[in-house]
Structure formats: structure tokens, C-alpha cells
Specification:
This is DUF4442 domain-containing protein. The chain is of the alpha+beta class and 152 residues long. It has a single domain, classed as Hotdog Thioesterase (Thiol Ester Dehydrase, Chain A). The chain contains four helices and six strands. It has a six-stranded antiparallel β-sheet. A hairpin with a 4-residue loop joins strand 1 and strand 2. The longest helix is centred in the middle third of the chain and has 20 residues. The protein is globular. The relative contact order is 0.19.
């Protein structure tokens, strides 16, 4: 990588969040509109039914939510810090093999930034769908509520 090349969001998160490296998460897409991450099939992270452990899938989905938040609001880190507030996950089907998490913002980014600019501490949801690579079936869904905490 040359000195003029900016690291990708995936590279940045892999460098600063050890769990991303531990699970070998793969960043497929990271834009302000959508983040897509993949959890490779790894025997050491399987559960009692042969699929990825629920904790690994939670981390995959939460990481996808963080990636889209950084893509949407990363240019404003000098004045705020994004923080997850709460998360809810539903496991719907058994996952086997590789699992993909696709995250989308639940509010328009410009609306969230306008609330921050007005002196507020905005909260906004990120919705994540977990799917099996082999057949595209949705195995789970997650919602993470984030806030932008103004820097003092």
C-alpha cells in the first residue's frame, strides 16, 4: 500500500478491533448505503449443530453495522464518536457454511447529521440480515441502535 492510499474500512476495523481479526471477517462492501461482511466457515467457531456459533454471527452482524456507520459518518469523527446503544438479534434458521451479513441504515444519514448539528445526540437503527451463502436463506436478523456522541 502506498503512502497516498487510504486504508479501507475493513482494513481499519481489522487493525483496531481484535475480534474482527480473530473471526477472519471479510469486508465485501462498505458504502454509506450498504455494508456486506462474510464470516468464513471455520470449524473452531462452530456450534453443537455444525453451524457458526451464535456469538460469531452476532459479532459478524454487529461488525457490519459498525462498517456502515463508519462509511456514512466517518468524515465527522473529529466532532463525534459513534457508539452502539443496544442490539437485538433473532436467529431464524440454522446457519451452515459461510454466513453473510448485510447492513443498511434505518434513517437517512443527512437527517442524523442534522440532529447532531442542532446540538442533539442522535440515535438511529442499523438493520442487518444474516444469510447462508449456500442458498441465500435468511438465518437471522439483527437491529443495532447507534448514537453519535458529540466530542467535547
Amino acid at each position: 500500500m502506498s503512502d497516498t492510499t487510504q486504508p479501507s474500512i475493513g482494513d481499519l476495523l481489522a487493525a483496531t478491533v481484535p475480534m474482527v481479526r480473530t473471526l477472519n471477517l471479510v469486508y465485501e462492501v462498505t458504502t454509506p448505503e450498504r455494508a456486506v461482511l462474510r464470516l468464513p466457515d471455520q470449524p473452531e467457531y462452530r456450534n453443537h449443530v455444525g453451524g457458526p456459533h451464535a456469538g460469531a454471527m452476532f459479532t459478524l452482524a454487529e461488525s457490519a453495522s459498525g462498517a456502515i456507520v463508519l462509511a456514512a459518518f466517518g468524515d465527522h469523527l473529529s466532532r463525534m464518536t459513534p457508539l452502539p446503544v443496544r442490539a437485538e438479534v433473532a436467529y431464524k434458521k440454522i446457519a451452515r457454511g459461510e454466513v453473510t451479513a448485510t447492513a443498511v441504515l434505518g434513517r437517512p444519514a443527512d437527517e442524523v447529521l442534522a440532529e447532531l448539528d442542532a446540538g442533539g445526540r442522535p440515535e438511529f437503527p442499523v438493520r442487518i440480515s444474516l444469510t447462508r451463502e449456500e442458498d441465500g436463506a435468511e438465518t437471522g436478523e439483527m437491529s443495532v441502535v447507534w448514537t453519535l456522541r458529540p466530542n467535547k
